[in-house]
Every structure is written in C-alpha cells, then in structure tokens.
Amino acid sequence: MDAESAQSVLLLESLASCNEQFISLAQWLSSVGHGDVSHSFNCRGYQSGTMLEVYVEVQLKGGVAICWWLDISWRHRHWLIDASVLVNDDDGQRVLKQFSDRTPRTLQDFIVELKEATTDLVEYARSMDLEPATILGPM
Q1: For the chain, how many structural domains are there in total?
Q2: Sheet holding 49-59, edge to edge
C-alpha cells in the first residue's frame, strides 16, 4: 500500500470510529426510553468548503429536543473540529454547551483530536440529566 493510501485508511478509520460512538449514543438514548432519537453522519459541500456534520438528537417531553453536534471542516491550512450541545424548544435554538474548537494541523493530530472531541461530547451526553425542567432551567 502506498503512503497516501495508508493515510487515507487512517482517516477513514477515525471517521468510522467517530460515527460508531454517535451510533452507540443513539442506541443508548433509545434504550433508556428518551423519546424519538435520530442520528446523522453527512458530508456536504458548501461555498465555504466541505464539511462533515455528525449529530444525535433526541426529542424529550414538552417539545424539547437536545442535539449533540460535531462538525469538521478544513479551514485556512488546518482542520476545525467544532462540538456543541444544542437545545431546541418553543423559543428556538440555543447552545447549551460549547466545547473548545480544535484546530489540528496534521493528519495525526486530527485523528487524536477527533477521538477526544467525540469522546468528550458522548461522555457529556451520558452524564446529562435529560429532564426538560433541568435542561431549560427555571422559567
């Protein structure tokens, strides 16, 4: 196998591992009885560049939805890995938690940073109290 192919395989394996963690999160949310759960892993081309978007969203009681979101792009000679937790309700969408952006510059750094970002997001999801009153806070 040539060097470029070997690096491509490493990239694909890291993306597959990320997706598997999101699939596992979606399955866990379904198994513990939290409403409708959806999962997506999409690669899209935008004017600003190509972006990989990965998420798990769960519809909770009272019209509240929580979304664990990860997007990956290439910007200005480095990767950008952005992870956040979003809340959707009758008032619209807001950021519940924004993780620090990760900007690895090499493929090896990207693989490490993607794994860490994915793990941080999934662990945060599993630690959350998913009662709408807790998420939305006092009204």
Answers
A1: 1
A2: 37-46, 49-59, 65-75, 78-89, 92-98
